């Protein structure tokens, strides 16, 4: 005898009256089979998370006073941008000046960079580890991260994903390099690694959008996947039943 399990599904009969619909355990397997998150859901969740990180980082760092050198560098950076907008300097001059000034700023704001990395680790690693694999962006979009083999999602898994997907490895590398390398070596090496980071991001986007398993490179390495939450899966199952 089939056991019937009631879900929050409704159907409309011939008289136009809505009633609850039962789902049998034969179809419950569809619910247990995790429904892959849509590409649009993952993209929107990613953008929401980026905006949250930017807001929180700016809010916290606003209370940290800059040294005089860093303050002057920021003023100089604004002046360079203003000259380019007003047509005083050419594109080539603008780019060269911005590269130089950004290097100097990075060298004098290492503490802020470290704080930014800490915030990212807390948000992308620690928080979802204790929140069913969800950041705030994923919670809003009703998706979550899980292990492919259904084992418990660990902090190491999330750390691997964040290092690759959220540029945390690149940011840590930049801090190390700027402390020990000359300006030219720093710019050359970080340029190479930045290009690799962009390539990884593009490849991951293509893999998520077009591959059957919808896993990016970060998912492949960490052996994770992003699926819909139980609430959404119930809705999907209701649509299948109707």
The parts where pLDDT drops under 50 for at least 5 residues are 1-8, 28-32
Q: What is the helix fraction of residues, given as a range? A: 55-70%
How many helices? 11
Order of helices and strands: EEHHHHHHEHHHHEH
Residues in β-strands, percent: 5-15%
How does this structure look, described?
With 242 residues, the chain is mainly alpha-helical. The protein has a domain at 38-66 and 109-232. The protein has helices at residues 25-32, 39-61, 68-85, 91-108, 110-129, 136-141, 155-165, 168-180, 183-210, 217-222, 230-241; strands spanning 4-12, 18-24, 143-147, 224-228. It is elongated.
In brief:
The protein is mainly α. It has helices at about 25-30, 40-60, 70-85, 90-110, 110-130, 135-140, 155-165, 170-180, 185-210, 215-220, 230-240; strands spanning about 5-10, 20-25, 145, 225-230.
SSE layout:
Elements: E1 4-12, E2 18-24, H1 25-32, H2 39-61, H3 68-85, H4 91-108, H5 110-129, H6 136-141, E3 143-147, H7 155-165, H8 168-180, H9 183-210, H10 217-222, E4 224-228, H11 230-241
Antiparallel strand pairs: 1-2, 3-4
Helix pairs in contact: 1-11, 2-5, 3-4, 5-7, 5-8, 8-9
């Amino acid at each position: 005898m089939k056991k019937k399990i009631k879900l929050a599904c409704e159907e409309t009969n011939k008289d136009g009256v809505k009633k609850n619909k039962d789902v049998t355990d034969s179809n419950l397997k569809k619910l247990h089979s995790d429904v892959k998150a849509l590409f649009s859901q993952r993209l929107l969740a990613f953008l929401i998370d980026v905006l949250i990180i930017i807001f929180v980082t700016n809010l916290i760092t606003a209370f940290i006073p800059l040294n005089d050198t860093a303050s002057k560098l920021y003023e100089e950076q604004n002046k360079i941008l203003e000259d380019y907008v007003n047509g005083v300097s050419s594109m080539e001059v603008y780019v060269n000046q911005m590269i130089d000034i950004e290097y100097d700023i990075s060298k004098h704001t290492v503490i802020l960079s470290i704080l930014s990395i800490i915030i990212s680790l807390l948000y992308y690693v620690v928080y979802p580890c204790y929140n069913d694999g969800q950041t705030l962006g994923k919670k809003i979009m009703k998706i979550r991260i899980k292990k492919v083999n259904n084992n418990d999602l660990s902090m190491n898994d999330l750390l691997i994903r964040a290092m690759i997907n959220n540029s945390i490895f690149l940011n840590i590398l930049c801090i190390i390099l700027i402390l020990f390398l000359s300006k030219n070596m720093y710019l050359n090496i970080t340029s190479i690694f930045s290009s690799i980071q962009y390539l990884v991001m593009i490849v991951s986007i293509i893999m998520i959008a077009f591959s059957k398993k919808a896993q990016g490179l970060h998912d492949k390495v960490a052996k994770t996947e992003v699926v819909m939450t139980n609430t959404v899966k119930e809705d999907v199952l209701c649509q299948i039943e109707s």
